[in-house]
Amino acid sequence: MILRDLLYALYARRLRRQLAGAAVPGHVALVMDGNRRWAREMGFENPSVGHRYGAEHVEKVLEWCAEAGIRRVTIFVASIDNLHKRGSDEVRFLMEMVERVIAERLANNAGRWQVHLAGDLDELPDSTAHALKIARDTTAERDTDSHLTIAVGYDGREEITEALRSLLDAEAHAGRTLADLAQTLTSADISAHLYTKGQPDPDLVIRTSGERRMSGFLLWQAAYSELYFCDVYWPGFRHVDFLRALRSYDARHRRFGG
């Protein structure tokens, strides 16, 4: 154990040296996948316990982001599909973790992060939506340049649909016709009605658990993001795994679709 810890520390130090002067993503988005599979591997009788360890791990990863100079983070907590298709007991436990571990700690902690929300809060239990709104409102006036967006009750296609609906409604109230809008519509017009309006797109998206797909996460915003897929489950996502993701990002030449 002591030898393994020593080797880990040496490897982490080597990664940090490699990243000295490296290009750091300004905005990292995290798909925190694999909580239940991690719990099964760890021998827990109830795999939903993994959601508690996953929620608690958010604080540690935010510390790593802050240390690396990353000022914007988006975390994908639960999709609309998760809420509809998972068992009621699992969803209830996950929502309790969102309330008690993520929302409450962020609201009560005089830390660096200002909280933003992305998703349809009407899809959540009232207590969860209330806790998230308190975290958002409590941190709104923090004197900080660090921003955390919590994506919960989220679906990228629904977000785009809602953005278009909101845009059409606004244009109609302004007295413009569909023909008028068709002549002038730009991607910026749609972006202005997304859940994440006013926020920069992610530079790097990290997904844990070994899955190689986006699962509807930030479909519009991540069009030109660098993607990094990590084979470890979210609660087991280590500092060296995070540093490897940053090293991979630095090694790529971003072409933004070119």
Automatic annotation (TrEMBL):
<feature type="active site" description="Proton acceptor">
    <location>
        <position position="82"/>
    </location>
</feature>
<feature type="binding site">
    <location>
        <position position="51"/>
    </location>
    <ligand>
        <name>substrate</name>
    </ligand>
</feature>
<comment type="subunit">
    <text>Homodimer.</text>
</comment>
<feature type="binding site">
    <location>
        <begin position="213"/>
        <end position="215"/>
    </location>
    <ligand>
        <name>substrate</name>
    </ligand>
</feature>
<feature type="binding site">
    <location>
        <position position="38"/>
    </location>
    <ligand>
        <name>substrate</name>
    </ligand>
</feature>
<dbReference type="Pfam" id="PF01255">
    <property type="entry name" value="Prenyltransf"/>
</dbReference>
<feature type="binding site">
    <location>
        <begin position="34"/>
        <end position="37"/>
    </location>
    <ligand>
        <name>substrate</name>
    </ligand>
</feature>
<feature type="active site">
    <location>
        <position position="33"/>
    </location>
</feature>
<feature type="binding site">
    <location>
        <position position="33"/>
    </location>
    <ligand>
        <name>Mg(2+)</name>
    </ligand>
</feature>
<dbReference type="InterPro" id="IPR001441">
    <property type="entry name" value="UPP_synth-like"/>
</dbReference>
<dbReference type="GO" id="GO:0045547">
    <property type="term" value="F:ditrans,polycis-polyprenyl diphosphate synthase [(2E,6E)-farnesyl diphosphate specific] activity"/>
</dbReference>
<feature type="binding site">
    <location>
        <position position="226"/>
    </location>
    <ligand>
        <name>Mg(2+)</name>
    </ligand>
</feature>
<comment type="similarity">
    <text>Belongs to the UPP synthase family. Z-FPP synthase subfamily.</text>
</comment>
<protein>
    <recommendedName>
        <fullName>Isoprenyl transferase</fullName>
        <ecNumber>2.5.1.-</ecNumber>
    </recommendedName>
</protein>
<dbReference type="GO" id="GO:0033850">
    <property type="term" value="F:Z-farnesyl diphosphate synthase activity"/>
</dbReference>
<feature type="binding site">
    <location>
        <position position="207"/>
    </location>
    <ligand>
        <name>substrate</name>
    </ligand>
</feature>
<keyword id="KW-0479">Metal-binding</keyword>
<keyword id="KW-0808">Transferase</keyword>
<feature type="binding site">
    <location>
        <begin position="79"/>
        <end position="81"/>
    </location>
    <ligand>
        <name>substrate</name>
    </ligand>
</feature>
<dbReference type="GO" id="GO:0005886">
    <property type="term" value="C:plasma membrane"/>
</dbReference>
<comment type="function">
    <text>Catalyzes the condensation of isopentenyl diphosphate (IPP) with allylic pyrophosphates generating different type of terpenoids.</text>
</comment>
<keyword id="KW-0460">Magnesium</keyword>
<dbReference type="InterPro" id="IPR036424">
    <property type="entry name" value="UPP_synth-like_sf"/>
</dbReference>
<dbReference type="InterPro" id="IPR018520">
    <property type="entry name" value="UPP_synth-like_CS"/>
</dbReference>
<feature type="binding site">
    <location>
        <position position="86"/>
    </location>
    <ligand>
        <name>substrate</name>
    </ligand>
</feature>
<dbReference type="GO" id="GO:0016094">
    <property type="term" value="P:polyprenol biosynthetic process"/>
</dbReference>
<dbReference type="GO" id="GO:0000287">
    <property type="term" value="F:magnesium ion binding"/>
</dbReference>
